[in-house]
Amino acid sequence: MRIDKFLKVSRILKRRAVASDACSGGKVSVNGKSVKPAYQVKVGDIVAVGFAGGEVKFRVLSTNEKVSAKDAETLYELV
Asked: In 3-state terms, what secondary structure has residue 64?
C-alpha cells in the first residue's frame, strides 16, 4: 500500500492530500529514509511523521485497506 494511503487509512493524518504533501515536504520517513507519497509501505517498516510539536514513530503491523475507524489502531503500534 502507498504510504500516503496508509497514513489516511490508519487515521494518522486525516486526508490523503495532507499525507501526500507531508511526504513531498520531507516530513515522513520510513526506516530512516525520507520517502515520496508513492512509496510502498510493508509490514514491519518503522515510519516517522514529523509534526510542529514533535514526531510520531510507529511500526506497521498490517496494510489492510478496509478498516473501520475504531479498528484503525490495529494497523500500527507506537515505537
From this structure: coil
